[in-house]
Structures are given as C-alpha cells and as structure tokens.
Amino acid sequence: KQRLDIKECLELIHSASGIAILAHPFTTIPKAGDVKEFVKHLDGLDGIEVYYNQHKRDEVKSLRNIAKKAGLLMSGGSDFHREASRRMSKLGFYGAKKNTSALNNKQ
Questions:
Q1: Given the DSSP bridges, would you call strands 73-77 and 47-52 parallel, antiparallel or unpaired?
Q2: Whole-prediction pTM value?
C-alpha cells in the first residue's frame, strides 16, 4: 500500500483549495503534549479536529488550547460513515455551533 508523505498530502489538499485538518489527533498521537509538538513542526496544517464524539472533556480543552496557541482552525465532526454502522454517532449531531468566519480568513 502506497502512502503519501505528510508534506505532499498537505500540498495536495491546498492545491485542491482544501483545508488541511488533523482528524482524531488522539487516535494516532496519544498525549496532548505530543500533539502540540507535532503541530508546531507541521507547516501547512490549517486546523485540528477538536470536537469529536470520542474525545473526553479534558482532551477537548487541551486541543482547543493547542489550536488557539498555534493559530489553527478548530473543527468538529460526528465521524459518521454510514447508516448501518455500529458507531453511535449521528450525522451532524456533534461539535460546536457553526462558525465559518475563520474559514474565510484562511482562503
């Protein structure tokens, strides 16, 4: 299975006018301090998925602080994949109130 290098991936997202968000950060990076270090050295990242149905309150708080300090967008999602999924998430039922003003500033 061929994989993209992170910088190539970010460039590809931006070339398609996309916004590069680090999804489910604690799935691959277990500690908040490590997430902070990871994003600090990742030029081209636009945001972090802060609001996620599997995050605990303290994790959301940590990710919000990391995003604010790094000047990154904060995203959220239900992680909905399909109706017949074993996951307990519903489409559009998780995250923060809609605020797209920061997106307009990134483009």
A1: parallel
A2: 0.73
